[in-house]
Amino acid sequence: MIYRPVETRRLWDTWLFPWNNQFHLFFLETQDTNCDHIGRAVSDDLVHWKALPSIRTKGKPGQWNAWGTNTGTVVRHDGRFYLFFGSIPNEQQVDGVYISDDLEHWQPYPDNPVLKPAGPYYLTDRRQAPYWPVDWRDPDIVWREEDKHYHAVLCARLPKWGHEDTGAAVAHVRSMDLIHWEHLPPVATPGKHFFHTELPNIFPVNGRYYLVFNTVSLGGIRIDTPSREYANGSFYMVGDRYEGPYTLPEDSLLIGSGYGKRDACCARTIEYHGQRLLCYHIDAKRPTWGAPKIIRARDDGGLWLQYFPLLEKLETGVIYSSLNDIPTDGPPDRGVWKCNNGVLTGKAYVVGTAYQVAKDVSDLHFQFRISMSSSGGRAGVILRGVRTGRGAAIILDFTKQRLLICPATGETFEMKAYDLNFGWTTMTRDSTPCQLERGRSYHLRCFARDEHFEVYLDDRWIFTTVIADAPKRGTVEFCVERGEAEFTDLRLAEIESLA
């Protein structure tokens, strides 16, 4: 929801390269045929971006990169910049490199590709692969002072695989010059749990190493985690050494979606002012680069994602900064609503009730505090509500102990829907279990930008969701079902539209 190239260009997997106090974004870009360029943009703050000329990376027929482009990375070595990316000659994935003196002008290394799968650790024969092609993609490269080598991890597969183990592996190679590579044993082989290990990335936090990779519920594998059912996204493993071994935590999903949806995906990380940021892209009709998240580690080694405060740079103006500013001339949508001393109380009986905070809002950043009465059922907010369209409802369900994000429509009432009230009906788009306490105040932060909706609870990331047919403008409404809820500390701001 932060950056996407102008139409008709299309963004896919992304990676960042910090240099000279700027952030250079590289991404697979489709202009004429599948991923025929690597797109580029640059930013001073990770929020506002300037497009740069793309790099054509699809070769001519007969060349190693004639198929197109797989995900890459950028490394600086001996005063020059090395841009790695993959392609698929002869049904086997390989990786080559372009070299630049200035990050602007790139020349292919004359003897590409430089990095290929090799035995005995990794599958090389297309005839023995479980699907097309042979896996060997998405290199992530770091310099390790311990042995004075560059080390890379890649998505690969073991020579042996089957229905009990897919052979999915995170390959490990090393080099002194980025051209000649030594193949080492894989750092992880999670093929009993996942179909593949795309975009692997290893980074340290608080004395531990973390391995992140992207995968989906695919190939007969349905990934169910404590936070999502039928999950897709970026997962992580934990280890004590870069080389492994790595183990799966109880909840291994770092960012992603449930219900088989593919929204936030393909994450990588960068160091940022002593913190580790997670960066990724969002799969949508027009994919975008996502909003960065701060990676936090618990004492037990588990990871969670925190709100990145610089996103407030997107704001163009504050609509309301207090509940005392909201309109009171219109009747509520059933129920009883009262506002006293900056506290808005909504009470619902048999059916739900909603209270309109704003009438005509487009892209927004909305935050408030919410608490539920001792017997309350559900409460939340509707963003960009249009009675004949599909806004977004963010619901705290105290009865089922879940958070939900749903397309909300006022057009029809369906018994199969999650019935917030007779005015709004919703069908769950994504949900996650959450221990919600009645009587406790929670801070809810929401972004709506184009078709993208993002939600944080107490500044902990919860949802990054695409609602493809969401209205461009609509109401903002608080809602309560079966009980009483209080809303305080409201702040509603408009944000810049996404190009």
List the helices and strands and how they pair.
Layout: E1 10-19, E2 22-30, E3 37-43, E4 50-56, E5 70-77, E6 80-87, E7 94-100, E8 107-108, E9 136-144, E10 149-157, E11 168-175, E12 182-188, E13 198-205, E14 208-215, E15 232-239, E16 246-247, E17 253-257, E18 264-272, E19 275-282, E20 288-289, E21 293-297, E22 303-306, E23 315-320, E24 336-340, E25 343-348, E26 353-361, E27 364-372, E28 378-385, E29 391-397, E30 402-409, E31 425-426, E32 430-433, E33 442-449, E34 452-457, E35 460-466, E36 474-481, E37 483-495
Antiparallel strand pairs: 1-2, 2-3, 3-4, 5-6, 6-7, 7-8, 9-10, 10-11, 11-12, 13-14, 14-15, 15-16, 15-17, 18-19, 19-20, 19-21, 21-22, 23-37, 24-25, 25-37, 26-36, 27-33, 27-37, 28-29, 28-36, 29-30, 30-31, 30-32, 33-34, 34-35
Report on the structure:
The chain has 499 residues and is an all-beta fold. Helices cover 0% and strands 51% of the residues. The protein has strands spanning 10-19, 22-30, 37-43, 50-56, 70-77, 80-87, 94-100, 107-108, 136-144, 149-157, 168-175, 182-188, 198-205, 208-215, 232-239, 246-247, 253-257, 264-272, 275-282, 288-289, 293-297, 303-306, 315-320, 336-340, 343-348, 353-361, 364-372, 378-385, 391-397, 402-409, 425-426, 430-433, 442-449, 452-457, 460-466, 474-481, 483-495. The strands form 7 sheets. Strands 23, 24, 25, 27, 33, 34, 35 and 37 form an 8-stranded antiparallel sheet that branches. The termini are close together.
